[in-house]
Design brief:
The structure holds two protein chains of two kinds. Chain A has seven helices and no strands. Chain A is mainly alpha-helical. The mean pLDDT of chain A is about 90. Chain B has two domains: about 280 residues, 3-Layer(aba) Sandwich (Rossmann fold); about 160 residues, no CATH class. Classes of the chains: A mainly alpha, B alpha/beta.
């Protein structure tokens, strides 16, 4: 159990890293404040608050997907019969849709600005997907540790 | 110090097979063991099976699985004699006692000796072809073996003596252990005769520091009648009489052995009768396991037995782990046999099938242990060497599980409750009786219940082994190649 709690704890670290460091410390001041031109009628600070909210929703969805992946792969679909149970890559892809779906309301509710909206949309997609990917590549259940695409290479470097 | 094992006759070969399985489980230390079979019937089915098991063992021993103290399986180095079977008839076709002693010449040159020969041996005994053994007549075997075993000249006895001499010169004690039945032909005649010749031969070459032990098996099976009555044969009805006479002989005159273990069974198991050759292939019996444990006791005991030691079991009709005489209430044997049984089961049921599947369809990410132990070490499943090693382990695991199943089922009047064979074998009944055979599809949901006493089956235990395999990092520098995989599997099956 200790092993599982450690891995789940490390997933939380990854998610926190994405929310606090990537989203709030790196992307907002370094990218958005430079490249977004809100134009008349939209206050930049308000727009950034909205971006942080919807970006956070995306990362929360990534967290939910990562935890779900761990719980399902470890306890709901253990490898009892390798010919049918061992291949869980499909499930991993399926759960990857959760952070992707969380992007849809962000796209809908984010106010259009004069320039740089594309960057916000890009970050909405990349942040949660990357968060889910990093968390699952590094901290999947042992029996499915290479199910995430590219895990064989990345875990070797890790 | 080296161990020397001599299996005499069909029963002797079966006991060597049992000892091989104990070595595979890691019961015996990391020593050299020299193994030799004595049998005039080289085509004997029991002998063939023991030889195959030994070959499989040797192949598995050669896989470097790591530090032999940590990974105990297959750690004893078993060397087979060359030739591994010694027959007093060499390559002679249709050997007969009369030819062997040149009876026709004897009649003309030494008529009195020929008359004595006539008194000692009937015409049937003189003229029956002995290529399938001594047919339950130890008097034939004793006469022939006494003339042919020579430690100074012919192989494999020459190497046998030289190896013991080398041990003695190094100040090491050589321990020789013999297996044979007291009630048949080859074992009953070979056991005392070969013991005497070995002792004499070693004395003649001034070899000291040797200990000679042996397990003598009293009748533990009987024949289902299906033979032609007129044939010279081993007759089950004379087993007890033969045994009584032989025991009297051992009590009064046989003083060559330092230790003798006598093993018997009051309810003999029925087996199909066969004169010999490939048809003489009786199922393994728990008494042979006891005989192998006798060898284990002899080899590992630093002090000799004083007086008469006895083993008993708690319940007359049941054998369980507490009855196993390994010196520590089965606490040595049980975990080792359990771990090897789990490994064999898991390997056959899950791992070899997964490897075959990966070879066929790729998608190696499904099996993290494959990526860790094969892919990253660049071990291609297509390589002939790897394929051979994997299939040798498959063959050994099958032999081991079948042997366990036979131990459980062959004693028809007794309940043997050591390993639960139902998850991997079933009893098949034919007109020749019932015998155990391995299942094509092992019952993996019973993996947790392979060892008695049984509990509630936990179907998730096999997935736990998979998880452990995927988690484990083998850091043992002595574990190389495929050995890393078996190292991890063995550890995961603890």
């Amino acid at each position: 159990m200790k092993k599982h709690l450690t891995k789940l704890g490390l997933m939380i670290v990854v998610v926190s890293f994405f929310y606090f460091f990537v989203l709030n410390i790196f992307e907002v001041p370094i990218l958005l404040e430079r490249f977004i031109f809100t134009g008349a009628g939209v206050v930049l600070q308000n727009w950034i608050k909205s971006f942080q909210f919807w970006g956070g929703i995306g990362i929360a969805a990534a967290f939910l997907a990562s935890i779900l992946w761990y719980l399902l792969a470890q306890w709901v679909f253990p490898v009892n019969n390798p010919s049918s149970d061992a291949n869980r890559r499909g499930l991993w892809f399926l759960l990857g849709l959760i952070p992707l779906l969380a992007v849809v309301p962000a796209f809908v509710f984010t106010q259009q600005v004069q320039a740089g909206t594309w960057l916000a949309y890009l970050l909405y997609v990349v942040n949660p997907l990357l968060c889910y990917y990093v968390a699952t590549v590094l901290f999947s259940p042992s029996a499915h540790k290479y199910a995430p695409l590219g895990a064989r290479v990345l875990r070797r470097l890790w | 110090m080296s161990y020397y094992v001599i299996g005499i006759g069909g029963t002797g070969a079966k006991c060597v097979e049992a000892l091989t399985h104990l070595c595979a489980a890691g019961m015996l230390p990391e020593q050299n063991m020299y193994c030799l079979f004595v049998d005039p019937d080289r085509a004997n089915g029991s002998l063939a099976r023991a030889t195959v098991t030994l070959r499989q063992y040797q192949a598995c021993h050669n896989i470097p699985m790591g530090n032999r103290e940590a990974i105990k399986i297959f750690r004893t180095k078993i060397t087979t004699a060359d030739p591994h079977v010694w027959s007093p008839f060499l390559d002679k076709e249709r050997p007969q006692l009369a030819d062997f002693f040149e009876f026709s010449t004897l009649k003309t040159k030494h008529p009195r000796a020929a008359q004595l020969f006539d008194v000692l041996y009937s015409d049937a005994e003189k003229e029956t072809s002995l290529e399938m053994g001594f047919r339950g007549h130890p008097s034939l075997g004793a006469a022939i073996m006494a003339r042919t075993v020579n430690l100074g000249e012919a192989e494999p006895w020459l190497t046998f003596r030289k190896m013991i001499s080398t041990d003695a010169e190094a100040g090491q004690e050589a321990k020789i252990f013999m297996f044979g039945s007291i009630f048949g032909g080859t074992g009953a005649s070979g056991f005392p005769t070969i013991a005497r010749l070995i002792k004499n031969g070693l004395r003649a070459h001034e070899v000291k520091f040797t200990k000679l032990g042996g397990a003598l098996l009293l009748p533990y099976f009987t024949f289902i009648p299906s033979y032609k009555k007129e044939e010279l044969r081993a007759a089950a009805e004379s087993f007890l009489m033969n045994t009584q006479m032989a025991l009297q002989y051992y009590h009064g005159q046989q003083k060559e052995h330092d230790t003798i273990y006598l093993l018997g069974e009051s309810e003999p198991s029925p087996v199909r009768f066969s004169i010999g050759a490939s048809e003489q292939k009786n199922e393994a019996h728990f008494i042979e396991l006891y005989a192998a444990l006798a060898a284990y006791d002899f080899f590992t005991r630093s002090d000799g037995h004083k007086g008469y030691a006895m083993v008993a079991r708690e319940e007359k009709d049941k054998i369980d782990w507490l009855d196993i005489p390994d010196g520590k209430n089965s606490s040595i044997m049980k975990p080792l046999i359990t771990q090897l049984t789990r490994l064999a089961f898991a390997y056959l049921d899950v791992y070899i099938t997964t490897l075959k599947d990966i070879r066929k369809s790729g998608k190696s990410y499904r099996a993290p242990w494959y990526v860790d132990y094969f892919e990253r070490n660049k071990h291609e499943l297509d390589s002939t060497m790897l394929e051979t090693q994997l299939s040798q382990m498959v063959e050994y695991c099958k032999s081991f599980l079948l042997w366990l199943a036979q131990i459980e089922t062959s004693a028809k009047m007794r309940k043997v409750e050591l390993i639960n064979h139902n998850p991997f074998a079933e009893e098949k009944t034919t007109e020749d009786g019932s015998f155990a055979q391995l299942l094509d599809d092992l019952r993996d949901n019973e993996f947790s219940n392979l060892v008695y006493p049984l509990g509630v089956a936990n179907p998730k235990v096999l997935s736990k082994v998979w998880e452990n395999m995927s988690d484990m990092k083998v850091r043992d520098p002595n574990a190389l190649g495929l050995g890393k995989f078996f190292h991890a599997l063995y550890k995961s099956c603890e």
